[in-house]
Specification:
The protein is about 45% helix and about 10% strand. Strand 1 and strand 2 form a beta hairpin. The longest helix is centred in the middle third of the chain and has 26 residues. Pfam families: CRAL_TRIO, CRAL_TRIO_N.
């Protein structure tokens, strides 16, 4: 298994058993790296990994994932969801920036259904995964994981105390954990106000220990995130308004051409 992490003989046996048990539902893109994500998520139990993968494939069918690019998503989602794929880290992993402080979830959920909101997030994840998969052809399978940067300045906890918003967040977290195991390479949450910890302490109960290990939170005003982030992300591709050096082709340090809703 070239470019793969070292695994023990017992783990390799589990991988072979898992591959055989799901051979009826996987295709040529589902290589050892893909299968290992599900095995690790279920502590190397092939039967539990099979159950997880089959359940995920049913969920993908429900979301009609293979045809999501044909979906005419609501304008509010296309224009007002704050995110941008700004480049790739030194291993080829996609780097996504989310200026979350501008996101009005109360307004969004009055414009679109929760189902459409979550479906659009699935579409974005699939796009980011495809970008990582293309990068992995030259950088190796480690490029298939995502680096995510959230700016939480002026986070409005009151909006997330609204029941529909809280339910949407929790449902989204559960969907992510069930269907995208070990996708996260690193998540940097910066400018987190004190009240953010209240919300996060509630959400983290639904996060897998692997996901939790990849999330780093920095309080409002701290720049301690720069050293770990820029150890693998070139500051020359990172928006200047967030502490990098990049300005877009319009000379804009907020890089609105790449990151929406700044």
């Amino acid at each position: 298994m070239s470019d793969m992490p070292n695994i023990s003989d017992a783990q390799e046996t589990a991988l072979k058993q898992f591959r055989k048990s799901v051979s009826d539902v996987i295709n040529e893109t589902h290589d050892d790296y893909f299968l290992l994500r599900w095995l690790r998520a279920r502590k190397w139990d092939p039967e539990a990994a099979e159950e997880m993968l089959r359940a995920s494939l049913k969920t993908r069918a429900m979301w009609n994932v293979d045809n999501l690019e044909k979906w005419d998503a609501p304008r509010a989602l296309r224009e007002y969801l704050p995110y941008g794929l700004i480049g790739y880290d030194n291993e080829g992993s996609p780097v996504i920036v989310c200026p979350f402080y501008n996101f009005d979830i109360w307004g969004m959920l009055h414009c679109v259904t929760r189902f459409d909101f979550q479906r659009y997030l699935v579409l974005l994840l699939e796009r980011f995964m495809q970008a990582g998969y293309e990068q992995s052809k030259t950088h190796g399978p480690q490029a298939r994981q995502l680096v995510v940067f959230f700016d939480m300045a002026n986070f409005n906890l009151k909006q997330y105390a609204w029941r529909p918003a809280a339910e949407c967040v929790l449902s989204t977290v559960k969907q992510y954990e069930s269907n995208y195991p070990e996708l996260l390479k690193m998540c940097y949450i910066v400018n987190a106000p004190k009240l953010f910890s209240v919300a996060f302490n509630f959400v983290k109960r639904f996060l897998d220990e692997y996901t939790m290990s990849k999330i780093k939170i920095y309080k409002n005003g701290s720049d301690k995130w720069k050293e770990p982030l820029f150890s693998h992300v070139d500051p020359n591709i990172f928006p200047k308004c967030f502490g990098g050096k990049y300005v877009d082709e319009n000379g804009d340090p907020e890089c609105k051409s790449k990151v929406s809703r700044i």
